[in-house]
Amino acid sequence: MKARAAESLLDRRHRLLGPSLSLSYRSPLHIVRGRGAHLYDADGIEYLDCVNNVAHVGHAHPRVVEAAARQMAELNTNTRYLHEKVLEYAERLTATLPDPLEVAFFVNSGSEANELGLRLARAASGRRDVLVLDVAYHGNTGGLVEVSPYKFDGPGGSGRPEHVHVAPLPDPYRGIHRGRTPETGAAYAADLGRVLDDAAAAGRPVGTFLVEPIPGTAGHVVPPPGYLPAAFAAARAAGAVIVADEVQTGFGRVGEPWWWAAEALGAVPDVVTMGKPIGNGHPIGAVVTTREIAARFANGMEYFSTFGGNPVSAAVGLAVMDVVEDEALRTNARHVGGRLLEGLDGLRGRHPEIGDVRGMGLFIGVEIVREPRSREPDGARAGALVEAARRRNVLLSTDGRAHNVIKIKPPLVLSETDADQIVDTLDAALAGD
Ligand code: PMP
């Protein structure tokens, strides 16, 4: 009976939704409820959710739900009227960033935030060309697919557009320079400098450096020490504005004392884009920049987002911030993330297929290889491990150029017991139990 119900959902989906949309897992899940770090399917089976970094403070957090319901029952309009909540939210959000980053814009998604980030940087630099890192993904709009090597070099992609320049992925495990050392960081920053020089020499100087501080779709690649500050310095010296895409990495995921991954890696961008976690499932995106860049953008053309910064979204955003602070979730990310990283690293001795374990806080990548010496990526095995973990009720996903990196980015409410469950589950899956 239940199986038939699930099958008919699948049939209806195929008929009703665009076919370019994919489903997770060989046997798709029918999830009907969420709480904390857990999801529940139609049969009441519980899954540990290590995929949905959107549910930052936990699925269906009662304080967030209540804030949304209360404001929804009172008023929802837009930013063309005065309202306290959007200002309080802007105050609280900008207070998490270093001083020059003090002016906020509100939108509805990570893609919309990056679109605006690009427009701000282009207005401030007066240049159209964009520098990105290899394998990067920055969003689903036409303009962002054009600056996302993950898409334009991937299936169905049409290659790198002329206005886009690609610097090597600063991957200390399998990139062109190896080792988590300052020398490797400097070597990758020098490579990026050469891409900037080549672009300028070709008459296409770069105006925007759009970058995830810890590249996500590339496989949660933590760059080597010193890379980010040196890369930012090189881009600034070439006249580029730096847009940090913190849609995945931001808002405390990398652990206390930080809110932002760029901050954790010692670098200050000119523009920060935010999405996913800041609304805990309610669609909120935001962009924060300097007063100077905001002023350059205000050239007479109005910028308006119908839903961006509306009172309900502001109330939700404030409630999410309250929970991050009141439940000390950045501390939890650091503590439980550290324990998880250590536990996963401990599996390497028993399972040589684990080539690398890296991450910060609760943003972790486990790289699966055929054998450690060759480092040959094993995407098929990584996919099989994700399926095996799903059968053990732990939800994981893969990414990276060869889809051989198991990504772990759970809600920040993950407990120590949950972390141990992830480690034990991967251990058993690797052993083929
Ligand atoms: N930037 C990054 C780094 C992302 O991972 C994503 C989404 N996966 C986006 C931007 C786009 O966000 P959204 O899907 O909310 O538009």
Overview of the structural elements:
The chain is an alpha/beta fold. Helices cover 39% and strands 16% of the residues. The strands form three sheets. A seven-stranded mixed beta sheet has the order 4-10-9-8-7-5-6, with helices on both faces. It has a four-stranded mixed beta sheet with strand order 1-2-3-13. A hairpin with a 2-residue loop joins strand 1 and strand 2. Helix 3 crosses helix 11, helix 4 crosses helix 10 and helix 7 runs parallel beside helix 8. The longest helix is centred in the middle third of the chain and has 20 residues. The chain is globular, with a radius of gyration of 21 Å. The model has no long low-confidence stretch (mean pLDDT 97). The structure holds 4'-deoxy-4'-aminopyridoxal-5'-phosphate.
At a glance:
Helix content is 39%, strand content 16%.
Fill in the keyword field for this structure.
alpha/beta, seven-stranded mixed sheet, four-stranded mixed sheet, 14 helices, globular, binds 4'-deoxy-4'-aminopyridoxal-5'-phosphate
